[in-house]
Amino acid sequence: MASEPTTVTITGAGGQIGYALLFRIAAGDMLGPDRPVRLRLLEIPQGMRAAEGAALELQDCAFPLLHDVEVTDDLLTAFNGTSIALLVGARPRGPGMERGDLLAANAGIFGPQGAAIGAVAADDVRAVVVGNPANTNALIAAASAAPDIPADRFSALTRLDHNRAVGQLADVLEVGPGDIADVIIWGNHSATQFPDVAHATLADGRSVLEALAERLGNREAATAWLDDVFIPRVAKRGAEIIEVRGSSSVASAANAAIEHVRDEQLGTHRGWTSAAVVSRGEYGVPEGLVCSLPVVSRGDDRGYRIIEGLEFDARARARFEASVDELVAERDAVRALGVL
């Protein structure tokens, strides 16, 4: 077992997703069974009691890997020496709030958090933004951390969308989720995202497109299902869960965040996964945007690497470009606020 614990900071730690994260991180699900952790729980003053209660429960679990827990509402205390930051807390859209209002409200959250990470986090820090609008919140945080922290240390969560896509395919094809590899989520974590199966394969060597054609009757039927059912359902799954459950995704979002960090830290295995990472111009995405792309990790200090050279047909390109256009519009709206 490593002797020095890894400091992990969770923002919005008193909320539901934060609560779902804490115990799995302390149990070793995120960083493995031989890496002790130190947890820093950041909350706003109104959420401190909930976070303090979670800290008491963590103590009661007596996790062997959990070195200590600190609850704070101070940014510099929360991010001091942190190596992994999960930025969960965000301002949700309220009644009558326009997207520009939402971006402005979250700039007031993620700008100061990024600045604090730049000022006091560990040299090896990596941060993943969970709170929506996640891609642009990550862009804001990265810009605010510069020049002390490289922008590519920040990413945003599209692993939940990736997992939702895999789950939908597994259900239709009657296979296990582990039998499906190389699904991609392109673009923004929003309703414009493009869940792509053009490169996906099954464990038996068949392409997912081939398997869908066999299951649904022919290639045309498979394409119709992808366009009319699969893509909209993955993109709008969060709204579906709210309608059925009465509240937003919690456990699945926490699980995806843990998997995002685990794969970045310990390495991906079969095929690639999806993450919103800083573009350097790959696939025509404007440089600097935080865009969901196919990625792999070797579990080293380089983190996620973008898979390059994949081809698009016209249908896929149009969907991808529409999502990138939305990211550009969000970036420009934030620039107009003077944040970037």
Automatic annotation (TrEMBL):
Residues that, per the record, bind NAD(+): 12-18, 106, 113, 130-132
UniProt signal peptide: none
One example GO MF annotation: L-malate dehydrogenase (NAD+) activity
Reactions performed catalytically: (S)-malate + NAD(+) = oxaloacetate + NADH + H(+)
Domain Lactate/malate dehydrogenase C-terminal, first and last residues per copy: 158-333
Xref: Pfam families: Ldh_1_C, Ldh_1_N
Protein name per the record: Malate dehydrogenase
Gene that encodes it: mdh
